[in-house]
Hints:
The chain has about 260 residues and is α+β, with helices and mostly antiparallel strands. The protein has helices at about 1-10, 10-25, 30, 40-45, 65-75, 105-115, 125-140, 155-160, 170-175, 180-190, 235-245, and strands at about 55-60, 60-65, 80-85, 95-105, 115-120, 165, 195-200, 205-210, 220-225, 250-255. The longest helix is centred in the N-terminal third of the chain and has 14 residues, at about 10-25.
Amino acid sequence: MAGFKDILSSATWLDAIASEAMAVGLTPSAALGKLTPPPSLSSSYHMEDQAPIRIFCLGCGFFVYRTADILRLRAQYRLVGALCGALPSKKRKSASCGSPLLLSYEETLLAVESRFAILVKYVPSWLNIDAKEHDSESHGAPSQAANTFCNIPTEDAAANSTLAEPLPEHELRKRAGGREMHAKVFRALWMSGMYVTGAAKYGADYLVYPGDPLCCHASMLVHVKHEHAQLRLPQRICMHRLATAIKKLAIIARVTATPD
Length: 260
């Protein structure tokens, strides 16, 4: 948790720990284990690396590999995403994941349009090797896979590789997959200062949090619909009952179809 240590190293937070320790008769180091981090990460975390964040387009997904960039997206730009990598100590635990961070199309488009991230296309070297082996096998040549080794890129290699080629914004929009309306709603919610995550497990589109999801519960369950979409009464009742059962407010976001 290098990022968590950086948060605790800020002068403001350490001063708060020292003051609290003196008040209860503890040493600062003892009080450190009893206090929780401040609710807003961005208020105490000093962002040293202000270079554009590199989002890698691999297949149909958008990934962020650098740990510092993952923390920066969450603390400074309120983009949560979903960790999808295996932790070295918990390789078989699906509930505990590490880098890379998987971003949705909406999150990626927002980051690219806001100019704090760039999208790059990266093809790992081992994919090229597999393609060459497949071609050789298709032409009847014997495969050398059993006697050859390939370098699989690590986190730093992928982040610093010169093989990554930038993708223009219009190429990103081609990968929308029918999520153009959702991108508009996501941006509107994000611009209001909220944290927004996916809500597929609740049969909705977005969960909206007033603060970091690690510190608070979601307050709204958002369903994205076209302006002319017809919702029958049973559908509305189901949305309302589900939101009430999980103590949230059901929101239907209707999007006007306007040319971009």
